[in-house]
């Protein structure tokens, strides 16, 4: 009978010492040789007639490796079940004895979820930033709407670039001798955003004359390949145009937002900005409360969970780059840098998850199947053409369990918000409102 001893090695590590009896090992080796004898083709012997001694000489190392590997794999799963251990990562297995005629002994060290007792999550004091939307905010938003629907009028009587022009350019970008970007017939606003883009360096350029300049990108730039690098640009302007804005009249209000008048448009924009500001305020409250919870609970976090979350964050960053994603030849180096930068954020996110799960358990919060189905329906509808793929994903038990966990965490933070001491702070403007600049 296999023997299993369990030892706690720190708060989130468990060591299983496993011993498989010599008789069981010998029986498995004998069974392996019987199977091998029936299949092996050994010169000088009819198939199925090769003696054990010959098979041992020819295949002994491989047979023992296969048998020991299978015994470890099978007994490890059984030991986890017997000891009621749920690992959060892959085991560290150390073979201590593996000889024919002897018991097979090994140890398996695994990480487990910590036992978290949530405390102090009632009455947390946080501020809710209340941003008052004013007429200037509404006007600025409508102005951006006008810019988004502007018509470009070619400039034919001038060959020198001026600030505010829309320039059509061809460009190349290099880091050293390595090409990191190229574009043809791209339109950029001269002197506009982004300030580290080609458009910021073209004021005074002549059509058809190459312009060269260097850009030093900050270490936290959102393009991981360019972050912290000096990039050399060569740009040629081929054409100029001026942006002609539509008149701010009732026709524009109807076309841009299906409003009957400019006054209706202003009311609609104000409502949308106020709703966005309210959402941002509530998001700020939740972020502050989660940060408070993370800081107030001191426990060891399994590194396997942190590593998984770090890799997920890295994938989010790289996927968000779209066409600016670094080439495969550079991706490993970029991932290594991001792994270092995102590790602490990932640890805090895992810690927040564990605290919120503890709150949900202590408060006996539940999520029923109907809620899960409702969330899946909303996710599928928002996925558009990919809705059926989303539904298929959540047929998997693991995906549904993950969704249930996320919904429980949402329920837990809602409870913390409801019990928090929230002080509204005033202020004008739309700081934090998407699209405001």
What do these coordinates show?
The chain is an alpha+beta fold and 437 residues long. The protein is 46% helix and 19% strand. The chain has ten helices and eleven strands. Strand 1 and strand 2 form a beta hairpin. Helix 5 packs across helix 7. The longest helix is centred in the middle third of the chain and has 35 residues. The chain is extended. The C terminus is likely disordered.
Counted beta strands: 11
Q: End-to-end distance, in Å?
A: 71 Å
The biggest sheet amounts to:
5 strands, antiparallel
- Fourth-tier CATH superfamily name of the largest domain: Trigger factor, C-terminal domain
**Per the principal axes of the C-alpha atoms, what is the gross shape?**
extended
Going by CATH, the architecture of the largest domain would be Orthogonal Bundle
pLDDT averaged over residues: 91
Q: What is the name of the CATH class of the largest domain? A: Mainly Alpha
Helical segment tally? 10
Q: What is the CA-based Rg, rounded?
A: 32 Å
CATH names the topology of the largest domain as Trigger factor, domain 2
- Determine the structural class based on helices, strands and strand pairing: alpha+beta
Whole-number total of structural domains: 3
């Amino acid at each position: 009978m296999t023997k299993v001893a369990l030892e706690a090695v720190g708060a989130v590590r468990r060591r299983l010492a496993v011993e498989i009896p010599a008789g069981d090992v010998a029986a498995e080796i004998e069974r392996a040789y019987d199977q091998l004898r029936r299949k092996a083709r050994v010169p000088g012997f009819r198939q199925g007639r090769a003696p054990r001694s010959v098979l041992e000489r020819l295949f002994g190392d491989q047979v023992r490796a296969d048998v020991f590997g299978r015994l470890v794999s099978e007994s490890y799963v059984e030991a986890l079940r017997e000891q009621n251990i749920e690992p959060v990562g892959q085991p560290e297995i150390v073979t201590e004895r593996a000889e024919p005629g002897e018991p097979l002994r090994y140890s398996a060290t695994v990480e487990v979820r910590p036992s978290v007792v949530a405390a102090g999550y009632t009455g947390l004091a946080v501020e809710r930033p209340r941003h008052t939307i004013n007429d200037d905010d509404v006007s600025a938003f409508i102005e951006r709407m006008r810019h988004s629907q502007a018509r470009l009028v070619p400039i034919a009587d001038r060959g020198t670039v001026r600030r505010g022009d829309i320039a059509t350019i061809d460009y190349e970008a290099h880091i050293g001798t390595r090409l990191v970007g190229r574009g043809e017939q791209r339109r950029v606003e001269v002197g506009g955003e982004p300030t580290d883009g080609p458009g910021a360096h073209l004021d005074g350029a002549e059509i058809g004359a190459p312009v060269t300049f260097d850009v030093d990108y900050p270490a936290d730039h959102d393009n991981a390949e360019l972050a912290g690098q000096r990039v050399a640009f060569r740009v040629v302007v081929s054409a100029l145009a001026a942006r002609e804005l539509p008149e701010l009249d009732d026709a524009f209000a109807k076309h841009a937002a299906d409003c009957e008048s400019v006054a209706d448009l202003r009311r609609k924009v104000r409502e949308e900005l106020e709703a966005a500001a309210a959402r941002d305020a509530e998001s700020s409250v939740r972020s502050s409360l989660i940060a408070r919870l993370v800081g107030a609970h001191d426990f060891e976090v399994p590194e396997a969970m942190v590593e998984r979350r770090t890799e997920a964050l890295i994938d989010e960053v790289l996927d968000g780059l779209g066409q600016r994603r670094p080439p495969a030849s550079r991706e490993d180096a970029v991932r290594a840098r991001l792994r270092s930068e995102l590790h602490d954020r990932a640890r805090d996110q895992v810690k927040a998850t564990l605290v919120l799960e503890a709150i949900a358990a202590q408060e006996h919060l539940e999520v029923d199947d109907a809620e899960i189905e409702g969330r899946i329906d909303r996710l599928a509808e928002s996925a558009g053409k990919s809705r059926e793929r989303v539904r298929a994903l959540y047929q998997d038990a693991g995906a549904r369990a993950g969704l249930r966990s996320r919904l429980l965490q949402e329920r837990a933070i809602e409870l913390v918000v409801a019990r928090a001491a929230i002080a509204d702070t005033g202020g004008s403007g739309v700081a934090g409102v998407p699209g405001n600049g």
